[in-house]
Specification:
There is one protein chain. The chain is 77% helix and 0% strand. It has one domain: Growth Hormone, Chain: A, CATH 1.20.1250.20. The protein is built from 21 helices and no strands. The chain is globular and about 60 Å long. It is mainly α and 441 residues long. It starts with a helix and ends in a 27-residue tail after the last helix. It is found in: Membrane.
Length: 441
């Protein structure tokens, strides 16, 4: 590669923008759509269920990852996926101007989620195959930070803007059409940028050459996964550790914006965007940083149960706010920041456990994806039922139920096996970052 070409494809030119684009689409589809559905008059049960079902594609993406590896280049799939996602958001904005638009928009979102999952597969592939081990470690922090900027923009800034547009005289439909056009435009612009600066991505050594070969590799990865010692205990941990987060992911924002008559805090979209999507996500970032330092100094085995406590016990702040219904923005912000900070602090233990204990072996990357897929499945299942349960119970009883539902998380963590070395070494650099594993407000 020439010096000029190498300079134009420097990782800082495409790693930040690539992972920001991935996170923006993922957060808009699986999280922000719940707020939009609610703004458009949908009840909590359907709003939470519809947005949660969009997680499915990101959960099962290991099943079609080998097929993506077979054709063209990883960059080709990244660019195609980003263009299609951008056009999809623009199409959703246009569809909102039609009668009975929801019957068109929901299938469109469904298709976009599979395209977005394909973007994740290809983008991770570019990262892993274009950078050597040292560079992967060097830019890991940049990649993680860039990913987390996506939710801050989507759940914070764009939700805030939707509220400002509505306050300024637009209907909720018109306001969200503007948001979707913005997201679509940004995503297409990112595709044009990546066409210039992103490397092609090398082919993996075990890349299948046919659908039969892809199926064989996938089957072998399943067989070897279930041959791992104490695999069912590790599966229980991967599925149950974040149960409370899945139950709160959609209902937390609903609680913030619902009127006091419904047991909520009556916040506007502008306030939600600032408190929940900005301060809350900033707290997640800080908690993740400090949690990583904590694990690195003490070792995961010694602190995993402490990290489980950090994820689950601070959920009491939602119960306290549901009982007290505070009107002070300072108190509400403090409650959200406390919960999000400790979630970020404790959640790093989940990802490190998958890397150090679940993933190692012949198919480390695929088995890591299986683990994060189990997490995604938990988020989808809990998200689908969360809105309906909340409507039946009311907010106070629902938040009590969330605290009770943390018991399986504690049990799975207590019995989580450790069969691999648990030292101060960093997680294996060959494992690609997984979109569905990253914290979403």
């Amino acid at each position: 590669m020439s010096t000029t070409t190498a300079r134009t494809r420097h990782p800082l030119l495409w790693v930040p923008s690539g992972y920001f684009t991935m996170a923006l689409g993922y957060t808009m589809l699986t999280s922000v759509t719940a707020i939009m559905f609610k703004n458009l008059g949908m009840d909590n049960g359907r709003a939470a269920a519809y947005s949660s079902m969009l997680i499915l594609a990101y959960t099962i993406k290991p099943l079609f990852a080998p097929i993506v590896e077979m054709y063209r280049t990883k960059k080709f799939f990244v660019l195609c996926a980003q263009v299609l996602v951008g056009l999809g958001f623009a199409g959703a904005a246009l569809a909102m101007g039609l009668p009975d638009y929801m019957t068109l928009m929901l299938p469109l979102f469904w298709l976009m989620s599979f395209v977005g999952a394909t973007q994740d597969i290809a983008s991770d592939g570019v990262y892993v195959t274009s950078l050597d081990t040292r560079a992967q470690s060097l830019y890991c922090g940049v990649q993680s930070l860039s990913w987390n900027i996506g939710p801050i923009i989507a759940s914070g800034l764009l939700v805030y803007v939707s509220g400002r547009l509505h306050t300024g005289g637009m209907s909720w439909m018109e306001a969200w059409r503007v948001i979707f056009f913005i997201v679509g435009g940004v995503t297409v612009l990112m595709a044009l940028w990546h066409a210039r600066v992103m490397p092609e991505g090398a082919r993996a050594e075990n890349t299948p050459t046919s659908l039969r070969g892809a199926g064989g590799i996938l089957w072998d990865s399943f067989v070897t996964f279930f041959q791992k010692r104490d695999v069912w205990k590790m599966i229980a941990f991967a599925f149950l550790f974040r149960t409370s987060i899945g139950l709160l992911e959609k209902i937390g924002p609903f609680f913030m914006v619902d009127a006091a008559a419904k047991g909520g805090l009556g916040m506007s979209n502008e306030q939600l965007g600032i408190v929940y999507g900005t301060y809350g996500l900033a707290a997640v970032l800080l908690g993740s940083l400090l949690g990583g330092i904590f694990v690195a100094r003490r070792g995961l085995k010694r602190v995993l149960f402490v990290l489980c406590c950090a994820v689950n016990i601070p959920n009491l702040t939602f119960l306290a706010m549901a009982i007290a219904l505070p009107s002070s923005m300072l108190v509400i912000t403090a409650g959200v920041v406390i919960e999000k900070f400790f979630y970020g602090f404790g959640a790093v233990g989940f990802m490190i456990y998958l890397m150090q204990q679940l993933a190692p072996g012949k198919y480390a990357t695929t088995h890591y994806a299986f683990g994060t897929g189990l997490m995604g499945l938990c988020n989808m299942v809990t998200g689908v039922v969360s809105g309906h349960l909340q409507e039946m119970m009311g907010y106070v009883s629902y938040f009590v139920f969330v605290m009770v539902a943390t018991i399986p998380s504690f049990l799975a963590t207590w019995f989580a096996p450790f069969h691999q070395a648990d030292g101060m070494d960093p997680a294996p650099a060959a494992l690609p970052p997984d979109a569905s594993s990253r914290p979403v407000a």
